[in-house]
Automatic annotation (TrEMBL):
Transmembrane segments: none annotated. It comes from Enterococcus malodoratus ATCC 43197. InterPro entries: D-iso_2-hydroxyacid_DH_PdxB, D-isomer_2_OHA_DH_cat_dom, D-isomer_DH_CS, D-isomer_DH_NAD-bd, NAD(P)-bd_dom_sf. Residues 21-320 form the D-isomer specific 2-hydroxyacid dehydrogenase catalytic domain. This is Glycerate dehydrogenase. Belongs to the D-isomer specific 2-hydroxyacid dehydrogenase family. CDD domains: 2-Hacid_dh_4.
Amino acid sequence: MKIVVLDGYALNPGDLSWQGFEAFGEVTVYDRTSFTDKEEIIERIGEAEAILTNKTPIDEEVLAAVPQLKYIGVIATGYNVVDLEAARKRKIPVTNIPAYGTDAVAQFTFALLLEIANQVGVHNDSVQQGEWQRSIDFTYQKTPLMELQGKTIGLVGYGEIAQATAMIAHAFNMKVIYWNHRPKAPQAEWAQQVSIDELYQQSDIISLHVPQTAETQAMINQESIAKMKDGVILLNTARGGLIDEAAVADALNAGKIFAAGVDVISKEPMAENNPLLNAKNCIITPHIAWRPLETRERLMGIAVDNFAAFLDGKEKNVVNKEHDE
């Protein structure tokens, strides 16, 4: 079987192996494929019966040009890059990789929060530049510092990543509240479900953990920010489109939001004119919460298992299964 990886670099920049897929057939790996040049996408798929994609879009036009295609594996959790209906009509299963990065993303959420609370990077830079050596005091600080103990963290969404984040917050003796689009039992007595407005009003820190849908698009906007506490901290390790970036930048510059830590942006790679770039107290990282080696190894393993299950006539992590006729 011919297998084509359309954009493998993000998952495997050279420190992993495609050997798991090579056991099933001839594998061709492209580090990157154009997101917009459909001719290139179609040409690279060629005669492949199975493809793997991360962000390269697979739509009706592409599928119509490759009638021999039998399998689409999305090597990520989000699968909006594939036209599921077009694949369903052609009886092509589309699989994704759920829950591979739960601990890594929860850990990174707190890495952003701890950087905001303790400003380790700022103070390390200060020492490296000689300020401590020139200081007349044994201690000094460049920015406000804060304890997390006793603060209220509000989790928007309460899936696996949010629950892992809640466990970390509890270990820091924080108060944990959460909102979910449907009622969801708390994992412990120390977590409390509230309405979204109550979450905005009560939280010292708000952390986003919901998928990007029509309902959640730009849910953090001028109106919702107005409901928040003055000096709130905003964290986003979910999807960039959950926030209205201009509204958040304005709130940061006005001090309504004390600080933000974001690992995702509405358009990636980041545009040079993104308003968050020049906003006050905004930490931005390039979508790396999922990138630890151990996490990517797990992702690769699940991707191989998904494909092996398909070849064995069994469905595993098929996201268009519910539409089958």
